[in-house]
Specification:
Number of strands: 5
CATH topology of the largest domain: Nucleotidyltransferase, domain 5
CATH superfamily of the largest domain: Ribonuclease H-like superfamily/Ribonuclease H
CATH class of the largest domain: Alpha Beta
Radius of gyration: 29 Å
Structural class: alpha/beta
Shape: elongated
Strand content: 5-15%
Largest sheet: 5 strands, mixed
Number of domains: 3
Distance between the termini: 80 Å
Low-confidence stretches: 98-110
Number of helices: 13
Order of helices and strands: HHHHHHHEEEHEHEHHHH
CATH architecture of the largest domain: 2-Layer Sandwich
């Protein structure tokens, strides 16, 4: 004898409701742990469980709706799901425009106090990691090992994110604190091999070795030299008494277009200071196993130049007591630039 049992129409709502309760339970547990240890990433994970529970409850309510209403609510949910992605994209673009606009100096103009809120590690550890990376020829893994030796467990990828986020802001603040450069400028260019393509690093320094600016460009012609000179004149607001370059004719053509050809000088040995200024870049390039893209090279070299100029106290020209005083002053400048809000 065959009997047809009616399906249990309440089984699906009960199952979905149970799943919703489990998701709410996991949300409460992760939220409590996140608040206890101050973890932003764990708090973000707990929100995922809250979203899942909300969707489960919505499914329970939607079981009694018509097909048309279900289709409408599905379209609304699809739009809601796009909101986090759009918000992430907007945040990334805003950060890129705020911290990576290195051509027109807008970072220094819109500089604000640096805030370390929302990070699991205290500001002192973040600041020390950034200082170690820019001050010495170290890789991200080297910084990770140095912190581990001090009992601080942090991955090299975390150090990379700290450097990429806070490095340009600290460098912009350091550039604002530098004194007015000398009136003798040295300009030079050197090639870099990035992703199998040759690009040129244009650098300008003053008579004391202060790095005025660096610019990564794809050309080594009059237009590239003119772009560097215009950027320097706009950035510092005065014309140098002497502009010393190598024998590349592009410098002379660019100086002629700007009307400063009478201040331009070139010679075989006159530009040794600019030639030697490329040595720190070459050391970092070897340590980083070459730069990965022109954009990343521009961002790193701009920040590195600001830190290098701050701590370049001409040690070989001063006595030991004078060097200690200059070094302490450089450290005070760094501490002020990296200070949290």
């Amino acid at each position: 004898m065959v009997t047809n049992e009616a399906p249990d129409n309440g089984a699906l709502p009960r199952t979905v409701g149970l799943v919703a309760l489990l998701n709410l339970g996991y949300f409460g547990i992760e939220l409590g742990v996140a608040l206890a240890i101050g973890s932003v990433s764990l708090f973000a994970d707990s929100i995922d469980f809250l979203e899942d529970a909300s969707i489960n409850l919505l499914i329970i309510f939607a079981l009694g709706w018509t097909a048309r209403n279900r289709a409408r609510i599905g379209m609304v949910l699809s739009g809601i799901l796009l909101v986090p992605g759009l918000a992430t994209l907007w945040t990334a673009l805003s950060r890129q425009l705020r911290t990576c606009d290195l051509d027109d100096g807008s970072v220094a103009k819109t500089m604000h106090k640096i805030s370390y809120r929302g990070y699991r590690f205290p500001p002192e550890i973040i600041q020390q990691s950034i200082w170690l990376y820019f001050r010495f020829t170290l890789s991200f893994r080297d910084v990770e090992d140095l912190l581990a030796e001090r009992g601080i467990t942090v991955s090299y990828e975390t150090v990379r994110r700290w450097v990429n986020h806070f490095g340009p802001m600290i460098a912009a603040d350091l550039r604002k604190r530098r004194p007015k450069p000398c009136t003798t400028w040295h300009l030079d260019e050197v090639y870099l091999k990035i992703a199998g393509r040759t690009v040129y690093l244009w650098r300008a320094i003053d008579a004391e070795g202060e790095v005025l600016d660096v610019l990564v460009q794809f050309k080594r012609n009059k237009h590239a030299a003119l772009k560097l000179m215009r950027k320097l004149l706009k950035k510092y607001g005065f014309v140098p008494d002497r502009l010393i370059t190598e024998g590349l004719r592009s410098y002379g053509a660019a100086a002629h277009d700007l009307g400063i050809s009478n201040r331009h000088a070139s010679g075989r040995w006159q530009n040794n200071r600019a030639e030697n200024s490329h040595q720190p870049t070459r050391r970092r390039e070897r340590k980083m196993q070459r730069f990965k893209s022109p954009g990343s090279a521009q961002r790193f070299l701009s920040a590195h130049a600001a830190v290098f100029s701050t701590f370049n106290v001409q040690r070989h020209l001063t006595s030991a007591p004078t060097h200690r005083v200059l070094r302490a002053a450089a450290m005070r400048t760094w501490r002020e630039a990296e200070m949290a809000a």
